[in-house]
Amino acid sequence: SVYGEEHGIVGPSDAKFQWVIDPIDGTKNYLRGVPTWATLIGLIDPAGEVVVGVVSAPALARRWWAAKGLGAKTQFNSGVNFGAGEISELKVSKVSKLIDASISYSDLIGWGERKDKFVALQEKVWRTRGHGDFWSHMLVAEGAVDIAVEPSLSLWDMAALDVIVREAGGKFTNLDGKDGPHGASAISSNGLLHDAFIGEIK
């Protein structure tokens, strides 16, 4: 079956695999001419695990992808032939202390009772930036950012990101620490900082 933001679920109700598609992640960026938007495609197996993910950001000339057990990769295309750029392996950072961490987030909307603790945490870490949407999580997969967090998301926002971060060596959960993209929020990290971050925002 196919599950997407624009059309819900299409296909047989007993389908074993499901494609999850977000045609434009970062719609508000797209509408305002900000180039950080992307098409997200994930494939979920019968156990509910994302086994394939692709993030394609044409305005950034970037693409990231991964498959379970096969690692995660990225490609930058500086020329006119999309797909001709050098392919690189993705690896998360090795930062192990929150005081040294770089955190990327979307905004301060949707945090509820966790908002004050998240704001307070920003003075305890090395730096914070509001990259937002897919890009925050891809920066985690690249090792440029150590933690990315968004407090309110849908499955189509997260499916592709989940497997890419995991295959780059990182961890992907919701704000309560539940693994995978099914928990309505997202934290991706290098894995070393995950529990400490969740502890700070509880």
Explain what this protein looks like in three dimensions.
The structure is a single chain. This protein is an alpha+beta fold. 22% of the residues lie in helices and 31% in strands. The chain has five helices and 13 strands. The chain has helices spanning 27-32, 115-121, 133-142, 155-167, 194-201; strands spanning 2-4, 8-10, 18-25, 38-44, 50-57, 62-67, 71-76, 87-89, 102-105, 127-129, 147-150, 171-173, 186-189. The strands form two sheets. The protein has an eight-stranded mixed sheet, covered by helices on one side. Strands 10-9-11-13-12 form a five-stranded mixed sheet, with helices on one face. Strand 6 and strand 7 (71-76) form a beta hairpin. The chain is globular. The termini are far apart. The model has no long low-confidence stretch (mean pLDDT 94).
What would you say about this model in short?
The protein is of the alpha+beta class. Helix content is 22%, strand content 31%.
How much of the sequence lies in strands comes to: 25-35%
User: Separation of termini?
Assistant: 36 Å
Give me the Rg, rounded: 16 Å
Content-based structural category: alpha+beta
Q: SSE order, as H and E?
A: EEEHEEEEEEHEHEHEEH
| Rounded average pLDDT | 94
For the secondary structure, the number of strands is 13
Count of individual helical segments? 5
| Global morphology | globular
Poorly predicted sequence stretches spanning 5 or more consecutive residues: none
Q: Helix coverage percent of residues?
A: 10-25%
Strand order, main sheet: write it out.
Answer: 2-1-3-4-5-6-7-8
Main sheet record: 8 strands, mixed
